[in-house]
Amino acid sequence: MKCCIVTGATGFIGTALCRQLLEQGDEVHAIIRPMSGKREKLAALQKENSSYEDRLQIHEAPLGQLEPFLAGRQIRADAFFHLAWNGSGGKDRENFDLQLSNLGYLADALRAAKACGCQSFLGAGSQAEYGVVHGIAKEGEVVPRPFMMYGAAKLSAYHMGTLLARQIGIRFLWPRIYSVYGVGENAGTLISYLMDTLGKGETPELSPCENMWNFLYITDCAKILAALGKSDAAEGIFHVASRDTRKLREFVEELRDIIAPGVPLAFGKRPANPERTFWLEPDIEKTEGLVPVEYVTFSEGIRMRKACSDEV
Fold first, then answer.
1. Cβ(60)–Cβ(32) under 8 Å?
2. Is the pLDDT of residue 312 over 60?
3. Residue 210 CA, distance from chain mean position
4. What are the phi and psi torsion angles at 102 (to 5°)?
5. Is residue 287 part of a domain?
6. How many angstroms separate the CA atoms of 12 and 216, rounded?
7. Which pLDDT tens digit goes with each residue over 251-262?
8. For 96-114, what is each residue's pLDDT tens digit?
9. For the domain that residue 43 is a member of, what is the CATH number?
10. What are the strands, taking DSSP E only, across the chain?
């Protein structure tokens, strides 16, 4: 059993990571914002299993004040998972000041991890750091060129986090997370839009969807992050994605055939800007060398998400 600290614990990925760590028998200190309206997600998780309640501690602490907060409670841990990030969706992705604030929060989290005795610190990178890359995003060969503030801030966080971690003496991991979907995902994603629209028997209006894409089911994402953060040797950049990379159009058609066979799809109804259209071809060789995963297939994932929606 290890003791882990998780920020951003009420987020889509954060909650799944907490569940994964608990399933593995670990103790989890979940950090949430004061007066968080999503606290009930973790409270519900505590009730899923009698042992979870004892091993899941929920702490309300503002970003930027984690070091004195955790030190004051004399919390000791093995691994720190920093998933909290301001402005991860919508128009906030282009908000300079909001994105810049995350660099200070990352530094505070790193220092908090060191103060708590953590051996490793895992941040939350993004494929958005690369910008538009046609071809496999091989580390060391592809030069990141983010086209939005969000991607630029993530890239800056990687570089500055790496240097600060080296200065204070803690292992720094930077998983670049690709397109994660599944039960509990946020509204406004492509998967959510498709399932909602097709579920009503309506025609989704889409871009040409000729770009390459990669979807990773949420439980697989949580398994990979947990394994990386608790590894005794992992360090640096890891691509967190599945083996299934193909044209986005093929994924859309596969989803349609599961949710509403025969409903037409309006490809090309929405214009696509080639300078701002992601092309996702991850290089997962390094990740799979450390974390073997039996991936949930896209069709399996969509059926599980559909089953959950039908229950609601």
1. yes
2. no
3. 24
4. -65, -25
5. no
6. 13
7. 999 999 999 999
8. 999 999 999 999 999 999 9
9. 3.40.50.720
10. 3-7, 27-32, 56-60, 79-82, 120-122, 125-126, 171-177, 179-181, 212-217, 236-240, 245-247
* Average pLDDT score over the chain: 95
**Residue 309 has what pLDDT?**
72
Place of tokens 């670990």: 26
The reported pTM is: 0.96
Per-residue tokens: 119: 């051996």
Is the residue at 199 inside a domain? no
Show the tokens assigned to 90.
């919508």
110: helix, coil or strand?
helix
Tokens of 152: 């630029």
Give long-range contacts, CB 8 A cutoff, 24+ apart: 44-50: 45/15, 45/18, 45/19, 48/19, 49/22
Exposed / middle / buried, residue 27 (Cβ in 10 Å: 0-12, 13-18, 19+): middle
Residues recorded for the chain: 312
pLDDT digits (tens, 9 = 90+) for 1-39: 899 999 999 999 999 999 999 999 999 999 999 988 889
Q: Please identify which residue in the block is written with the tokens 């986005």.
A: 248
HSE of 17 in the Cβ direction (CA atoms, 13 Å)?
33
Local structure of residue 147 (DSSP, 8 states): -
Q: Which amino acid is at 306?
A: K
pLDDT of residue 186: 86
With vertex at residue 179, the alpha carbon angle to CA 207 and CA 44, rounded to the nearest 5 degrees, is 125
pLDDT value at position 311? 62
Domain that holds residue 59: 3-179+217-241
- Domain count of the chain? 1
